């Protein structure tokens, strides 16, 4: 079970909180698990990479899939465990989905701690499945490499997302040529070096925007040449502008949980 700072009650639903930077080490679940950060942002990491769910997304982790978590900002998390028989309707790999208004209300209701009869609980879970079955995953996903040379490069960027060094410059530290690293990014991760670095920066931008920083501040802090470049990269990954994303977070945070 996810070890929140405030313990979740027993059962298959609950609510808890994680402090900024708090982590939950590698673990897996017998059931499938949905985690909705109604405030803050939650990163889920597996051997395949890292998914980030801000307050307008929900994470899905299938049964038996080892993963860990990290919170960004004070993160209020709602947990919904799904029995194995329902998991077949959802993806076989960890995913992130957008939270529709209906889905949000069902998630909050099902995890509010109220005692409910089996029938109403079953129907609420059914609504969640219906909403997610029809939804396209909206993954803010960063693949992670296995090759040691590539891992050296990505570790440097994880340590400093604003690092604007070229792939050739980073390759000197990794002991690999730009040509070799370019091929490794495409073959192993399926994206170019520029795309990977941009996705990393967007993940960090989600956190900074959630903390209330201005778009121009986030752009300069994370190494984009100008705000326009940042906005274009953000839209390509998230599907909306940073300003609209931030306004949506503010609306969510005004709600009573």
TrEMBL record:
<protein>
    <submittedName>
        <fullName>AraC family transcriptional regulator</fullName>
    </submittedName>
</protein>
<feature type="region of interest" description="Disordered">
    <location>
        <begin position="1"/>
        <end position="30"/>
    </location>
</feature>
<dbReference type="InterPro" id="IPR009057">
    <property type="entry name" value="Homeodomain-like_sf"/>
</dbReference>
<dbReference type="InterPro" id="IPR014710">
    <property type="entry name" value="RmlC-like_jellyroll"/>
</dbReference>
<keyword id="KW-0805">Transcription regulation</keyword>
<dbReference type="Pfam" id="PF12833">
    <property type="entry name" value="HTH_18"/>
</dbReference>
<dbReference type="InterPro" id="IPR018060">
    <property type="entry name" value="HTH_AraC"/>
</dbReference>
<dbReference type="GO" id="GO:0003700">
    <property type="term" value="F:DNA-binding transcription factor activity"/>
</dbReference>
<dbReference type="GO" id="GO:0043565">
    <property type="term" value="F:sequence-specific DNA binding"/>
</dbReference>
<feature type="domain" description="HTH araC/xylS-type">
    <location>
        <begin position="151"/>
        <end position="248"/>
    </location>
</feature>
<dbReference type="InterPro" id="IPR011051">
    <property type="entry name" value="RmlC_Cupin_sf"/>
</dbReference>
<keyword id="KW-0804">Transcription</keyword>
